[in-house]
Amino acid sequence: MADGREGQERDELAESLNDLFTNLSSMVKSELQGTGNLLQLLEKMNLKVAEEYQNFGDIASGLRVFVEQLKAKNGSFDEYVQQIDSIERQVTEFEAIISMLDNYVRLLETKVRSAYQDVQPKTIN
What burial letters (b/e) apply to 58-76, b meaning 16+ CB within 10 Å? Predict the structure, then answer.
């Protein structure tokens, strides 16, 4: 009986160890599966972020082209700005000349009026 009982205890022990290793294997397998799932999620997130950065790169490249176009347009306006500045200087000079002419005309008017008054016959009462 002792042999039977001992054999039964060994079978129970072997079965318990087998269950332990099976459960441990299942747990490790589940942990590895969870880690694999996390790595897949991380990979998808990295791909999405890379796609977004690619889009940002495309936007930045488009903005760079736009800025270069604006610089080219601004450069073409420089000629017009110089022309406007030149016209403004000429207008200022013309205003000064017109002011001098206006003063000269007033002086002439004054002289003509004075001469006209001197030439008019004086009436005697």
Answer: eeeeeeeeeeeeeeeeeee
Distances (CA, A) of 95 to 80, 92, 99, 106, 109: 22, 5, 6, 16, 21
- Any idea which residue has 């790595």 for tokens? 39
Does the predicted TM-score (pTM) go above 0.70? no
Q: How many CA atoms lie within 13 A of 111 on its CB side?
A: 6
Chain centroid to Cα 113, Å, comes to 71
Share of the chain above pLDDT 70, in %: 93
For 107, the 3-state DSSP assignment is helix
Residue type, 116: Y
Question: The tokens 């002792």 sit on which residue?
Answer: 2
* Tens of pLDDT, residues 28-69: 999 999 999 999 999 999 999 999 888 888 888 889 999 998
Task: Determine the residue type at 29.
Answer: K
Question: For 44, what's the count of Cα atoms within 13 Å in the CB-facing half-sphere?
Answer: 6
